[in-house]
């Protein structure tokens, strides 16, 4: 059983200089420590106290896909920590005109103290990290969205007072970044996770197998099914995500058809625990993956979740860049 930690208990944890590419790269202690630091920084921010941990430090932020939350929360987070962030759209930098990832990594490492990247291929982020001499943070790939899930864990912890022993249910596209990072995050903190997806949209086999193994250390169970009612039964936390992720727009019509029956609506939520909370990383499509009644209803914590991107990422930045 995993307990929540106080920062002082695991100061031995060494995160300085590490990359943040996927949650499976971190131990349970390290993830709980990041959440602890996030809560400390959030408390200081709410009290209006300064947190100049990254004074004079600069984060380069490469975006090959759109973003509202990730861009703004990283930029504001760096500012609140006394540093600065530079927005680098791939449309404007030479990477978008064919400069290699390795040259980009080496050049940016001479200027900045950390690089955040949002892109398509996860391999590109791994390649960037292998050539950069500063920490690289994954701000979303087709395969993983780890900063979002760290914020999700923080939100669940705040609302439920614990993580270990809870049941999280994810309904929708099992083969996307959110489903994969949620699996990796849940098993690290001792949460059970059930995923309901249509045939053809099940989670990546390798990531699932690795998560099942990681879950054996914390007592987490992973269940994957095609039946949303079975998956949501007695869930403490319900999560969904868009049916068509960025880069998949041509498949929209096909996906609308495939995911019919996987909408999170009030009827489906009746099978969860009475005090369930609802999370969605946003942006959301009301009337598709979730109804307005659920996402705008009393169980929804989506705006706390969005706010927690800021606090969780400040913890990542503080721990990796100082
Ligand atoms: N949830 C999330 O990553 O939002 P953005 O795409 O707006 O950054
Ligand atoms: N799965 C979504 C997440 C957006 C934050 C996408 O990749 O578009």
TrEMBL record:
Location in the cell: Cytoplasm
GO molecular function: ornithine carbamoyltransferase activity
Catalytic activity: carbamoyl phosphate + L-ornithine = L-citrulline + phosphate + H(+)
EC top class, as a word: transferase
Annotated ranges, domain Aspartate/ornithine carbamoyltransferase carbamoyl-P binding: 18-158
InterPro entries attached to this UniProt entry: Asp/Orn_carbamoyltranf_P-bd, Asp/Orn_carbamoylTrfase, Asp/Orn_carbamoylTrfase_sf, Asp_carbamoyltransf_Asp/Orn-bd, Orn/put_carbamltrans, OTCase_ArgI
Residues of the Aspartate/ornithine carbamoyltransferase Asp/Orn-binding domain: 165-319
Keyword entries, A-Z: Cytoplasm, Transferase
Annotated pathway: Amino-acid biosynthesis; L-arginine biosynthesis; L-arginine from L-ornithine and carbamoyl phosphate: step 1/3
Transferase as UniProt keyword: yes
Pfam families in the cross-refs: OTCace (PF00185), OTCace_N (PF02729)
The keyword Transferase belongs to this UniProt entry's keyword annotation: yes
EC number(s) given by UniProt: 2.1.3.3
Positions that bind carbamoyl phosphate: 67-70, 94, 118, 145-148, 281-282, 309
Binding, L-ornithine: 177, 241, 245-246
Record PANTHER family: ORNITHINE CARBAMOYLTRANSFERASE, MITOCHONDRIAL, ORNITHINE TRANSCARBAMYLASE, MITOCHONDRIAL
Annotated function: Reversibly catalyzes the transfer of the carbamoyl group from carbamoyl phosphate (CP) to the N(epsilon) atom of ornithine (ORN) to produce L-citrulline.
Family membership noted in the UniProt record: Belongs to the aspartate/ornithine carbamoyltransferase superfamily. OTCase family.
UniProt-recorded name of the protein: Ornithine carbamoyltransferase
Taxonomic lineage: Bacteria, Bacillati, Bacillota, Bacilli, Bacillales
Underlying gene: argF
